[in-house]
């Protein structure tokens, strides 16, 4: 029974992590940017949902649509004002990659401080569907179950999109070789926006979902970014399968290690696994 | 050979002239030194008070509240023409110099050096948080300037033997004493569980509570520390639940506590006494948890219903100026200002040494109760009359339930099941 509880709790946490890690892995692996602001896109999604719920009583699950739309708008501006000019100015992909770290770090600071100014630095939050229901005899708060279902649905949809649609195939081609994708007539500018849009939208959706679980504040994105980076490194940048697998490793290790060994060691063990895997396979488990 | 010289070296007339010159020079020198050494009434137009605060960064909300209380006090004093300093024979208005340290101790240290050496402030107000105060109190000590930390509760700040470092609120060990004495008053609270996040003050409080619980012969059946910001506490709470505790103590940031409480509700952990710190009295906690917070107890350092002189007036003025009830950091900051005011008026001077001596002699009533500095268990200078309270959420508001003498409402015990 205990093992079943730990398994389910680990699976739920993994679902939330995967949503954030998928977006990070997709943009980092295909666009060759290190998106340090990814956690802040999560934070913005969380604030949008919080304000819609608090001011207009909008159902947090419904507000996913608003977070999704707002994320696409943010992605549009990031694409046009940040990535496009950067790509034009950088001489090669290595330069683009390293400069993107600084640019996205600045963007992260900008977003956080914007939220500071607009809404203050206080912790905020709300309660929604926190009554526990029994799943196979294990009590789980209704909202956490819904969040896990939405997260895994998003992951499946993304997988189908990447592997079953023409645009998805183009994205995979683009991530493998940008010049050849150009040669066979793929509109890389359009693709870049689509990739960034999906990445930011996944972060926005994740933000909407987590706002019902945790107290939120402008710097909340930091802890998600670190987890997303580790998961992406573990599974291999750009690999969707790797992001899911990495999330499950981290989710389960947090759950089982906390119970059997102690909370103090959960991060140590999870990141030790990361170091070990990277020592054996530096490009990540599922890297191409 | 005839030498054309007088028998005398100088003539009488010449001697008289020389003597007169020497006399005039002596008198002039005497008058000059007499004028120089005569005490002059010093002149001064204002009292310059300075501090740095975390006006940007993660603690900006609380630091801004602290600044609001400082400003309220400055306005109140200046409305009356300033503070009377006998040394200058007049009332001097206060000018506040404030810098933003963004919550960074290194930046704050540089800013306090600047306040003392360049801005030449007369009085130093404390920054926000224990971590920043820990660093800047070293600067104050170096320049022999007293400093009071309104929001610096960590005991380790005051056990370094510093002479110019004063507290402006209760110490963390006093926070712990309150909950331990409450548990001691309930004979059926035998099995105690503590979960603490790696948040600095929470860890410190956890160690004091643990020590206290062991001191009153209660069984500490569960004690675990977890990284602050952990996203999932179900496994930890499950493990705690298996030990079936009578009392649960959760120590962490407001976000850590929200997750911990929600997880306890999810796993139906229903102890007789559920206590949380820190951030318990922040209105955001009640907004976030809603009905789930009903019956939750927690650490309170200040309450608007406490019966202290001037408190009601402070609450009214704060509310009319800022539109909100003052949170605890405001009360701490305002208390600090009251202490400084009493010390300056009693010292009759702005000399740092005189203010420090006056601080050590003070015994006053503030909006947070009686204040007298002293050394307790190797910590100085802390308030020897400090009291921390235990609050409980009842019908959506926080009431005081412990110590009994200060209770604003009857306690609800045991804690009702989760709503």
Explain what you see:
The complex is a heterodimer of chains A (288) and B (419). The model of chain A has no long low-confidence stretch (mean pLDDT 90). In chain A, strand 1 and strand 2 form a beta hairpin. Chain A contains eleven helices and two strands. Chain A has a two-stranded antiparallel sheet. Chain A has one domain: Orthogonal Bundle (ABC transporter involved in vitamin B12 uptake, BtuC), CATH 1.10.3470. Chain A is globular. Chain A is mainly alpha-helical and 288 residues long. Chain B is an alpha/beta fold and 419 residues long. Chain B has two domains: 47-170 and 306-383, Response regulator (Rossmann fold); 176-300 and 392-406, Rossmann fold (3-Layer(aba) Sandwich), CATH 3.40.50.2300. In chain B, 41% of the residues lie in helices and 20% in strands. Chain B is built from twelve helices and 18 strands. Chain B has helices at 12-37, 60-79, 105-117, 130-142, 172-184, 200-215, 234-242, 254-266, 283-289, 311-322, 328-347, 352-361, and strands spanning 47-53, 83-85, 90-92, 94-100, 123-125, 147-149, 165-167, 191-197, 219-226, 247-251, 273-277, 297-300, 364-366, 369-371, 373-376, 379-383, 389-394, 397-402. In chain B, the strands form five sheets. Chain B has a seven-stranded mixed β-sheet with strand order 9-8-10-11-12-17-18, with helices on both faces. In chain B, strands 4-1-5-6-7 form a five-stranded parallel β-sheet, sandwiched between helices. A two-stranded antiparallel sheet of chain B has the order 2-3. In chain B, a hairpin with a 2-residue loop joins strand 15 and strand 16 (379-383). The relative contact order of chain B is 0.12. Mean pLDDT of chain B is 92; it is low at 1-5. The chains are: A mainly alpha (288), B alpha/beta (419). The interface between A and B is large, with 45 and 38 residues.
